[in-house]
Amino acid sequence: MTLGLINANPIVHAKKERVARCEDPHCDDAVDPDIRDPEHPYSLEQLSVLSEESITVDDKLGRILITFTPTIQHCSMATVIGLCLRVKLQECFPPHYKVDIKVSPGSHADEEAVNKQLNDKERVAAALENPNLRQLVDECLYSNEL
Amino acid sequence: MDLDDEGSNFELKEIQTLSGHTDRVWSLAWNPATGTDDAQPVIASCSGDKTVRIWERSALTRSWDCKAVLEETHTRTVRSCTWSPSGKLLATASFDATTAIWENVGGDFQCVSTLEGHENEVKSVSWNASESLLATCSRDKTVWIWEVMPGNEFECASVLQGHTQDVKMVKWHPTMDILFSCSYDNTIKVWAEDDTGDWHCIQTIGESSNGHSSTVWAISFNAGGDKMVTCSDDLTLKVWEADIEGMRSGNDQVLWKHLSTLSGYHDRTIFSVHWSREGIIASGAADDAIRFFVESKDSVVDGPSYRLLLKKEKAHDMDVNVVQWSPGQENRVMASASDDGTIKIWELATSSN
């Protein structure tokens, strides 16, 4: 079951630059935007290369487990994708459902660290209050509708 | 005592549900003056809706009403709130990186001071017993100690570095000026002041000392201050003890030792734990349940162990973020708050057979 989350079409060029400069307080690794090759920024197009989500829903307990395989190894992208998934799931399911999000075992170098951040609800709440990050998440999820 | 009688049946009776917040309620605090003299019980609560609400129980109707909404001060989630020991001031910690100090001026709560300095979200705030010091902690990995000066002025006395990750909670020892902090880095740190007035970490309780294996969310002391209980994302509660006389005599070498681990009782993150005056440990967890534990009389061999007194499933519709016993005269009254946006007042009663 895929949720059709990610826009398959390329995002306009202007947004690429915004992503490259986006501060990501959700991830403690500081990424110096100057290090990125401006020709090949981490862009929403790359985010959209995400593959394979697997979702287990337990309606009786009201729990959801989703595992995903990011194709990008860098920490900040995996946590952003995880955030997008969480926001989308919150919309699809009643509020009392508990969502656990993990990267597929072996798919990320910092698997434990990423999983820990994605499932710390205080960190998630703070991240989604950050306007830059919130905007990025909204763009990932809603750019289809533009 | 009925707590010792393993045949006693307990139930958690719901007294009232307090609604009003428009987002999850992260924390609450009973005013310490609650139930003393003529003072009616008062609770402060704080929320993702960026406000703090003050609730008071009416002397006449015995029903709780919202007396005040403290808004337009914090610009982001208010994560934690705590009254000063005298009950005159309220400190609120926010994701907006500030800590606000409020005073009740003739029924009106006014923000009398704003503490700035943390680089990002402030998670917790705690007053020491004598009300001379305030501690705050943040995702910026630091713990700050502030001196309370006359005229509601606060001066930063120390910035404590040591945690390697987000610091979730700070708590002063109930009687001594020793500070405890717990963190996303899975450790608990103990901080004390030396003869020259410098604060430093005198102990780090990590996995190698039988410590937690994931984020430690909260700390609570027993009435005597010689034991503390911590709760974690690793699904356990851990009880620790220290040589209290050694601590009182200022012996820096006194360490906190692991006493007991309560595992197998929780299957989701435990966000809050609170030790009552009587010795009942209450926990609030991400499975919407509230649990109560007491020391088990049988254990003598390796030291005390604890047994589950009661599990209240579906105490709330969503995660329980905080549990707090009332400091008032009425025994076994407790408040909890949840992601479902409500606060509930409970009474732990022995059920009639």
Automatic annotation (TrEMBL), chain A:
Gene3D superfamilies: 6.10.250.1280, Fe-S cluster assembly (FSCA) (3.30.300.130). GO terms for biological process: protein maturation. InterPro entries: FSCA_dom_sf (IPR034904), MIP18 (IPR039796). Belongs to the MIP18 family. This is MIP18 family-like domain-containing protein. The lineage of its organism: Eukaryota, Viridiplantae, Streptophyta, Embryophyta, Tracheophyta.
TrEMBL record, chain B:
SMART domains: WD40. Keywords: Repeat, WD repeat. GO terms for cellular component: cytosolic [4Fe-4S] assembly targeting complex. GO terms for biological process: iron-sulfur cluster assembly. WD repeats lie at residues 18-56, 71-103, 115-148, 160-191, 209-241, 313-353. The keyword Repeat applies. It holds the Pfam family WD40. It comes from the Eukaryota. Transmembrane segments: none annotated. HAMAP family: ciao1 (MF_03037). Belongs to the WD repeat CIA1 family. SUPFAM superfamilies: WD40 repeat-like. Essential component of the cytosolic iron-sulfur (Fe/S) protein assembly machinery. Required for the maturation of extramitochondrial Fe/S proteins. This is Probable cytosolic iron-sulfur protein assembly protein CIAO1 homolog. PROSITE patterns: WD_REPEATS_1 (PS00678), WD_REPEATS_2 (PS50082), WD_REPEATS_REGION (PS50294).
